[in-house]
Amino acid sequence: MTDSLWLDLEERSRTRFERSRQAACVVPRNDAHREDVAGLGTLRWYLHPSLEDRALSSLYMVEIEIDAGMRSDRIKHPGNIVGIVVEGSGELWLDGEIHEWCERDLLGIPSKPHGVLFDFFNTGDVAARIILAFPNWDSALGPGLGTGIEHMPLA
């Protein structure tokens, strides 16, 4: 510990960063992903700040799987999300506009000052799989990423 709070913070941050990177998993295996079932469908987390064994914590990266004919719950999010459709076809409902997508399409959900509303609808006959990535602003802006994240289950 030093006499300077700034230097102490800097040293603790550097030590924590180095310790986490030494133990980090650079290439997590398929069975190492945390799986959740939520309003978006089945979620497989590749990168998440709570997965402390990963080499990167500045991004969220998640694969969502939506069963054929199903729709995800609506999400309010700050945006700045990029995604790739791995399998399936459907529609992205973004702020009231419908955008069709299919396998290998790139999805971009822009950022807006008051956030965006979106949900996915699988119009195909197989499960749709989409990988999404977005910045981890939680650390700087707190839960809700400044504009708030809301899960809005469909009635």
Outline of this structure?
This protein has 155 residues and is mainly β. 14% of the residues lie in helices and 42% in strands.
Helices and strands, with pairings:
Elements: H1 5-22, E1 34-38, E2 41-47, E3 59-66, E4 74-77, E5 81-87, E6 89-94, E7 97-102, E8 106-109, E9 116-122, E10 128-135, H2 138-141, E11 150-152
Antiparallel strand pairs: 1-2, 2-3, 3-10, 4-9, 4-11, 5-8, 5-10, 6-7, 6-9
Task: Please give a structural write-up.
It is a single chain. The chain is mainly β and 155 residues long. The protein has helices spanning 5-22, 138-141, and strands spanning 34-38, 41-47, 59-66, 74-77, 81-87, 89-94, 97-102, 106-109, 116-122, 128-135, 150-152. The strands form 2 sheets. The protein has a 6-stranded antiparallel beta sheet, with no helix packed on it. A 5-stranded antiparallel beta sheet has the order 7-6-9-4-11, with no helix packed on it. β1 and β2 (41-47) form a beta hairpin. The longest helix is centred in the N-terminal third of the chain and has 18 residues, at 5-22. 17% of the residues are buried. The model has no long low-confidence stretch (mean pLDDT 81).
Structural class: mainly beta
Integer count of domains: 1
Instruction: Count every beta strand, where a strand is a DSSP E run of 2 or more residues.
Output: 11
- The CATH topology is given as Jelly Rolls
Q: What is the N-to-C succession of helices and strands? A: HEEEEEEEEEEHE
Average pLDDT reading: 81
Number of helices: 2
The percentage of residues in β strands lies in 35-45%
CATH class value: Mainly Beta
The rough form would be described as elongated
**Rg, Å, rounded:** 18 Å
In spatial order, strands of the major sheet run 1-2-3-10-5-8
